[in-house]
User: Fold these one by one.
Assistant:
Number 1:
Amino acid sequence: MKLGFKVWLLIFVLFFSLLFIFGLPPKFLDSGVTITSVGSNSTLFDQGLRQGQTIIAIDGNKITNFEDYTNLVSGKFISGIETKLIIQTDKGQYTYYGDTFPDLTVKEISKTNLLLGLDLAGGSRALIKAENKSLTQSELGDLIEITQNRLNAFGLTDLKVSPVSDLSGNNFMLIEIAGATPKDLKELISKQGKFEAKIGNETVFEGGARDIASVGRDAQSARIEGCNPGEAGYVCTFNFEIVLSRDAAQRQAEITSTIPVNSTPQGNYLAEKLDLILDDNLVDSLLISEGLKGRVTTQIAISGSGSGATQEEALKEAKAQMKKLQTILMTGSLPYKLEIVKLDTISPILGEEFTKYILLAGIVAILSVSIILFIRYKSWKSSLALILTTVSEVIIILGISSFIRWNLDLPSIAGILATIGTGVDDLVVLLDETGSKVSLSIKQRIKRAFAIILGAYFTTVVSLIPLFWAGAGLLKGFALTTIIGISIGVFITRPAFGELLERFKKE
Amino acid sequence: MEQRNWHDKYYKLLLLIPLILILFSLTYVTINYQKTGDFFKKDISLTGGTSITVYDKISSSQAEIDLGNKLQNLNVREIYDFGTNEQRALIVETTSDWETSKSILEEYLGYELVEGENSDIAFTGSILSESFYSQLLVAILIAFLFMAIVVFIIFRNLAPSGAVIISAFADILMTLVVVDLFGIKMSTAGIVAFLMLIGYSVDTDILLTTRVLKRHEDNLNTRIFGAFKTGITMTLTSFFAILFALLIVQSFSIILTQIFLILVIGLFFDMLNTWITNVSILKWYVEHKEHKLKSEVEQ
């Protein structure tokens, strides 16, 4: 049987879709694990290990999947014993020494180019607006830049911060973080992060590049001082160095020059303390030694503490507090008080199961439809055609989604299902038109079928257009995948099916 | 004169069925609107509020009693695994804001909730959800209007286009009433389902109208019956496909369950509205036209 142009076109499009989904060479042949984050103050980061690289081997042992990885690294590090770890990635080899596991997270390598949205891959999504203020486009742009910097400084890299606006002209900032949800998400994204160092009522310096030239983050200039039992559990203190700008140092000298000195058994200190204030809460009060009075110094040590029920918890808390302070000192405060207006978190494990069930539901739906068609037309060809057309449509939608780097979220899945639904309807129209008793050529009949199919197509497309803007575009995925799906259906797959029917009838 | 079958005799009378249903639905929706200020019951994605999913085996009835006076408009339910039928999660919905809800729930459970690990959160602020709600209603209106324009362009004739549009409208209206009678609280996803319904319901109406108006072989009744055979296959396939999918998704996704449930109800009414409402109006129109044509010829 000779294949016509429309069938060739379908085969061509299918081929490219598979190429987009799996890449060349096909990604499902790849092995290893993908790095999702590397702590920016880790020595591995300094050597060039980055998020997105693929770990192929550890200590010379080949890694094919996530299980291999966990088997190789779990139990490797014992507190107090310096251990060496050699990580081989697709970009090079990195060596780590330490007694704790490096600040590194990985995930199973993806076997396709498909981008799974939060509903399927897990993660968190927050829609944010300024409190009591409507932001202009440029204000929103500034806000996004600062937020991006702050999240990156915190070590989160697998994220997207984007502006969205809705039908009523409101502007929002949309933050999407893939994978695990950071524990202090709210602190990170909506706390203004206003840091002030004050002596009495006078501000000496604030967070951000204007007053602060650099923030120490390496092992020498930032450390946990020690842990002690406190009132309830343990308290650990941290300490890190910062370098002030000339102006800020000058200001400090002027303010301290007028403060009297107190003599105490521990030493001579100024009568007023340096108060470190974060979002109007006192973090710590530092004694200022006599020697600093009226002197221009740019080196300052910042300290604080974290507490917890156990020493381990207190240590973790102190580290987190230190990281937060460092981040805020580096990036400065957000220009507006922010409010989370919508927040969704989805566990990664749930997402995986979700994908499984969606596939199951899809298969059951397609099978039940093929059975109904078989009963109605008493021909296995129509059922087979249905399965082939539907499967090709899904493959092409996924191919296009990979090509345009579209994140498949729950609305997109609903869109794919809608496409399958209209596909079945159109096939039934085609089967009935070609099978009618009218004395018309098969070409005429298929043309008639397409008059109906196109009518239905245009009504569906126009009814989806408003969804691109309504509801801050969060349901855009539905409109997009449905329109892509039914367009492919009406212009590529269903005509090819018509052509096949034409051949069958002629023979 | 060809023989008149029962449909020829009674099709106008049949119109009473959808007419009564439409009148009932309109009254229901109007009363509902006057009483509650809304067309349907809304869930927290449209009223604003928090939904916390805790991945643990916790009794919903007990939680409901214990948390009832602490969280506003509390609604608690359990989620079961499709395969093993074991409880996998507890979902707590309330109109309280997320930080309050989370701390109250943590106090009740006696452990910390970590999103993405032992729990998940979905929160929508009330101002935002109000604006979502009004925007989605506008979206439905615009979608409906666009659909009507396209239908009119396709048939370029007021009565048949009107019949398609009335059928689609009746479809949405009746589905809305049944959804409300079932006590379903509509979410943003539910509104999307109504958009899908516009597309689905118009499909069969376009098929019918095209077959009846643009084809000239066979008589009117044969054309209608031919369209019916095709159209009912279309609707039944979609109906069963969605019904089976619904059985699977109801174990894990509230959002998809709502979309599918609305579609199943909608497709049921689509059969009624296409094959009674639309057919009767269309038949009336065609017979009236043929009659007029005949009397003009006689003159």
Number 2:
Amino acid sequence: MVEFILERGNYWAIIGLMMIGLYTLFSSTNLIKRLVGLSVFQTSIILFYISLSRIDGGTAPILFGADAKGHGGDHAEDVAAAAAHGADAAHGVAADAGHGVADTAHGAASHGLEHIYSNPLPHVLMLTAIVVGVATLAVGLAIVVRIREAYGTIESDEIREMDLEVALAEYAHDHPGEADPA
Amino acid sequence: MIDLILQLAPAWAEAHAPALIIVLPLLAGPISAFLPGSGRIAWIMTMVVTALCTLLSIILLAQVRSVEGGAVISYAMGGWAPPYGIEFRIDALNVLVLMLVSFIAFLTSIFGWPTIRAEINEEKRAMFFGAFQVCFMGLLGVAATGDAFNLFVFLELSSIATYVLVALGSGRDRRALPAAINYLLMGTIGASFYVVGVGFLYAATGTLNMADLAIQLQDTSGNRAVQVGFAFILVGLGLKAAMFPLHQWLPNAYTYSPSFVTAFLAATATKVAIYALVRFLFSVFSLEFIFEGASLALILTPMGIAAMLACSFQAIFQTDVRRTLAYSSVAQVGYMLLGISLGTAAGVSAGMFHLVNHALMKGALFMAVAGVVLTYQGTRIHDFAGLGRSAPWTMTAFAIAALSLIGVPLTAGFQSKFALVSALLASGWWWAALIVVFSSVLAVVYMGRILQAVFFKPPNNPQKRQKEAPMLLLGPLWVLALANLWIGINGNFVVGLANDAAQALFIGGVR
Amino acid sequence: MSGETLIIAALVLPVLTAVGIFFAGKLPDFREGITLLGAAALFVTACGLAGTVGGDMPAELVLGTSVPGLDFAFRMEPLGAMFALVASGLWIVNSFYSIGYMRGNRERNQTRFYICFAIALMGAMGVAMAANLFTLFVFYEVLTLSTFPLVAHKEDKKALKGASIYLMTLLATSIGLFLVAIIWTYTLAGSMDFVPGGLLNGVEAVTPIIASALLILFAFGIGKAALMPIHFWLPNAMVAPTPVSALLHAVAVVKAGVFTMAKVGLYVFGYDLLKDTPARDFVLGVACFTIVVASLVALTKDNLKARLAYSTVGQLAYVTAGVMLANSAGMMGGSLQIAAHAFGKITLFMCAGAIYVATGKTEISQLRGLGRRMPWVFGAFLIGSLSIIGIPPLAGGWPKVMLMLGSAESGDGYVAWVLIISSLLNIAYLLPIAILALMPPRGTLEPAPYKRPEGAPMFTVAAPVFTAFGTVVLFFLMGELYDFLLPAIGGQP
């Protein structure tokens, strides 16, 4: 039982971060805190993908040693094929719901590579995702600055109160002479 | 006429149309943002770019139609072959969406200039158009791409630009800002859920290319990772599509953003997300998975029906015209989802047909409202009283689009409701057909209130200037209103496109 | 002229008239002239169309396909020809009347009034000529929408409220029930065409339960036929000026409703299927209930137009009852009632309008003794009442006879009793009006002087007299009408 938890430590971390992020986002009233929650949530997703790229016994996906020698251009195909094969191994991985054992040595050898490498593709995807997250955060913070200028506060419940007052005033303006329902 | 355009198009345009349709606005966006002047040059650039994209989408349509049964155009970006490289895959389904988005963008960019002059500060206008082009590009990219992660990238590109565009409505009403931040938070959650789902799919299959995923997913009906991935994707895209109950961001966003943005978003943003949903449901995941494995009908149908009923009711109680239309949009998304959840070619065709018609209807309605905002600075039903006499051209177009929304015969809305109810009855879902009809009656109530105020009440403030919206605004408005009538009378062209789209999805799997 | 040309003419002429009225808006006499010219031309076209029925070349036209499966198709058949003739003919009369009424009452927005009238007539012609349910539905809705501005004409709060109820009820029933029935029919039968003998007759998928559900959807979805409880839009629409009420009750709107009911019964269900449909008895019962209860309510109304409105509700249910009897005699009775009631009711309404223009009076209790001053008007009213009651030599008698024959044939004997009770009630609520006006009992006060010094405008008196005369003429023409309708409806020659 303890092994079950420990072997999947990374997934527990991911779930934990995701839930913390979402909870902060939903329950907090301070807009900056909500944006922080959003960032934590996005970080957990990044961790998720990176977990996927980990191959047991694999090292950083940079060709070295015996694999680095040889024809530069053709290598790209082999590397791509190896990466895809690494992903297929990861397929076997995920089917068992998260074990780190894989038949990678076989895969690497069949493509003519001596060493086992982790899958670089999820890392690349997450670079994109990090950029997206940063852009979103930047826009969000800019909007929060403008909210502060316009409303004088960044607490969402206070903002809602102010908007409600405006809405009630509009309604009273449209229907003059009606008794106050409150 | 389509063949004529194909003949006139230069060879490089034909060969690279899928890429050009993205690259043009992608380049033009940052350039527009830094153009000097009061924004007029940026506006012209926007019009030119959207016009070119419309032409490119027509070229793609011609290419797709050149083969009986619909060709699939596969364009490998950078020459890297799929499934390792990112590919753009155009078939009958997304060429329809591409055409719709570019055409609407073109019309709204023509109509937008007077409203932007009135609502956005001069120094921000060029950047506004830059953001608009990025948003436009993102939507086109979502429609064109054949790679699941690439879809996320384009989706977020368009969304971030949209958050900015919505927030720019603060020039008129500061409530645009909380609306924008709410939209940002919820929209990012949606996109993040989507990317988690894609992650699960990648973990299970090792590929991100949608066509390849479809092949790999065929034998995985019991796989928990795939089911979870499907669930995340459904929720994520559903949030972007304003599927009930994930629609809370929409009413505020549509009500307080600049008129130009509302008109464009109402007609395109949710539609593209629904397209993505359809693409995943029917192309990527197999039909057996959807209906036996994950019981699609149990999820989408009640959501669609709840959207139709709850939001139609909410629309009745609004005092602001734009809010009424916003709730109405959510209800109409419910119609589309109901059609899609049928799982038959007829249902998907009806859903896609309604997608196009609704874009035309809502586009026209919001454009008319923009005209009123421009000349009278009021958006409440109260402010609309008596405008039938002061602004007859605007209000007649509004009335045509409103009748289309209600579903009066000879309008596009009637055609799509007819198609939807026929599809429902053909599958035996008579209770759903009755609910569709009931919510149409609700539409009569909420649109009827507005129409009654416009045409039969005396103006509230006779001192207000009695004048008509400018020609730049009326032109595109009437194009959309007449499109409603044309499809209502002779809908063969669009129905043909929708049917082709549905057939493209169902080749190889029939229910 | 070929049949196709006539069909196109029937649709285009009212639209051209509307356009002409629009441009002639500033010249009232010219504008009214265009209306009359258009109405006359339409009537001639309708005669031409009626002439093509039963010949070698029935007028047929397929205008095009809206969407695969939905065509705009027209075909003339006897029922439709009769409706077209009644509608276009009475348009001429009503136009003369409108001229007198609108000018006499100094109503505003007359241009809009005449334009909407023309469009409404186009809708009526479209309904008359439709060859399938889709085309009929399209023009049915055109009729609803084009009459809305007419009902709301006065634009005060009461008028808007009445017009809203009118529009909401008709749209809700047509979209909510009628359209569903149409689409369901299409799903079951694969087409929406009107087929002699019944489109759904013989279709396997149509079980008795499905047929019952469809029948109920149709019966209550055709809101213009004013079957209880969908009838309340009609009294609410009384806020409209009298020419509009005349249009609603006699020329176009309710007639389109019961005509649609007849077409559905004859060409979508057919006698055989109707007989086997369990809900037929229910709908027949509802129709008879409507006949009696509407007449009872009419008795309680002192407002003249309200009483006439409820009278119409009851009289319309005759047609529905006739259709539900599911045999040729019943259907014939119902069809003849369409024509007979049109003439009778329009007379009554036009008289009510003339009274209002001259004296400003709307309540029946105020009309005692007025007949001495307005003998022509009340004379026409008397004749119209007798026609509704069903006394020969006036038109209303024949339909009642056919309906009784039909009820005997179908075994629903109680219908005959309902008809007799209804006639008695008609006498009770219609005759006193004219009698007390023409021959007031001793001791009645002298009626107040005219509101309008010259009395009722000439056109508003001449028109009802003309139609009252028409009820007599129609009585003698009933035989021809019977023969004309026979090929479609079947029965004894």
